[in-house]
Amino acid sequence: MDKSGDQMMAKKVYTCFCTDVIHEGHMNILKRASEYGDVYVGVLSDEAMVGFNRFPTISLEQRMEIVRETGLVKKVLIQRDVMYDQILSEVKPDYVVHGDNWSQGPEKAIRDNVIANLERLGGELVELPYTYNENVKRIDDQMKEKLAMPEFRRKRLRQLIAMRPIVKTLEVHSGLTGLIAEKTVVETGGRLDQFDAMWISSLCDSTAKGKPDIELVDMSSRIRTIDDVMDVTTKPIILDGDTGGLVEHFVYNVRTLERMGVSAVIIEDKTGLKKNSLFGTEVEQTQDSIENFCAKIVAGKKALRTEDFMIIARIESLILERGMDDALHRAYAYTEAGADGIMIHSRKKEPDEILEFCRLFREKDEKTPVVVVPTSFNSITEEELAAAGVNIVIYANQLTRSAFPAMQGTAVEILKNHRALEVDSRLMPFKDIIRLIDEI
Ligand code: SPV
Ligand code: MG
Q: Which of 81, 98, 310, 352 has the fewest CB atoms inside 10 Å of its own CB, making it the most exposed?
């Protein structure tokens, strides 16, 4: 590094910030960066932050302002992608400065991307020791806590619908499965991916308790599950509210969920003894009248205290083989009654009827969010669903269905071998399971 004279002042140093708070770690990066030349900071856009599993709690303009206020920066820019291709082509810095905490895990993909870009464009990577101390940890924890607060979490689903091509939602039914949805980030094809939201499924919540999915597990118990999940996560929650029950009960439940910070409840237009939709017409199931179901939606909406919470109406016409016209007719009626979204369900192997519904629904309604649960029609990709106008995709039961055979297989092997040695190679190391849980 040439640190002398005018030549050094002409050098450009680039660093990217993805934070709602400037702490001593950031100040250290900026001070050290300024020793190399003029500092250009790229502030990650909302969309890029969300895709990177860092949901912003202040606006992009505010995030840019806190960087300007440090007084150590020549220019603040917007970085629109976690990968650096575009921004480095624009800025063409002599140095890219970053903390040294990105050599492992999914962030390594970003480091590799920066190195490849610097090879292409010229320039040097400077890695500075990341500041680990009590104060920095406390600030990071405070930011996380803020995201977990009801008023932040609740509105996050609506924010995601506006920001994401499709909101990817994973079923969770415990603190542990919540942690998987919260923390799993993968790198594929140079892109980082993660889940946006969590689904508390009636099927899996009931199954976890060894009970049938017939609205037997009552709301107090469902709330207990939600609370366990909320305790250890920050992502928004969509509750499978079954039929919503009696209108007189639904209004109270809606208010409780809203106060807790749940983002949405999905209620299905069935009545009487509810059975799981994947049984279709193999069991007796009764669809509610349009009039009754609309009255439930109206009452639920009236009970709400915020604009954040969503009541999403689930249409069972295709499941019950009542036809596309009935499904569409109901979709418009429920939207008219105030539903904040429509879930259309199908148990066909092919996605054709879902795609047909989306195409016809979108002819008249471009805005109302559409939700799908591709359990049976699982060959369709998120990109194809987004292109069809779907806003939320729910992977409704895959965690439960993968855990059960794994646990059952382990139980069988222990019984067969009269010891645990044979199963050890397929178990998570004990050290890893301890690390899974955050310490306070
Ligand atoms: C659930 O996950 O409980 C659902 C979706 O309601 S389905 O099982 O496909 O009906
Ligand atoms: Mg259900």
A: 352
